[in-house]
Amino acid sequence: MNISMYQASVPRFLNILGNLSGILDKAQAHVDAKKIDAAVLPNYRLFPDMLPMTTQVQIACDAAKGVVARLAGVEIPVFEDNEKTLADLKARVAKTTAFIKSVNQRQIDGTEDKEIVIKRGDKETRYNGMQFLLGHALPNFYFHVTTTYNILRHNGVEIGKRDYLGNP
Questions:
Q1: Residue 5 near residue 133, CB atoms below 8 Å
Q2: CATH number at residue 113
Q3: Structural domain boundaries enclosing 139
């Protein structure tokens, strides 16, 4: 059995983004029930040199929409990094999900060997489509979603593995 680039990407992103949205709902319910200042969780870091939860969600969304756009050969949507609340973060996840759903399978399938160039400062890294998806984009996406989960769990939000994995 073969798996296509679309099957390896879009359904995975949509599944985990949907789960992330549900996790953010549980975080909001936790904040409301415990009467916690709404700014605490979005600004929380696991360690002082780590990025706050807001940035973790932003990067996860950017990773998902970035790889889908690059593989599909369309412009990457630009979202301002101005989220302050859990509701703002949930809205960003929703915008990311809507973009990913707008790309169809024909645009992604067959991109295994497509050249993807990532620029960071004055450095360029070149990948083929499959290397980029499997070796960079998916691990980066999962890392930032997992870190978001860990921040929320550390702060007492009652979430578990089922919330993270959902129903693939």
A1: yes
A2: 1.20.120.450
A3: 5-165
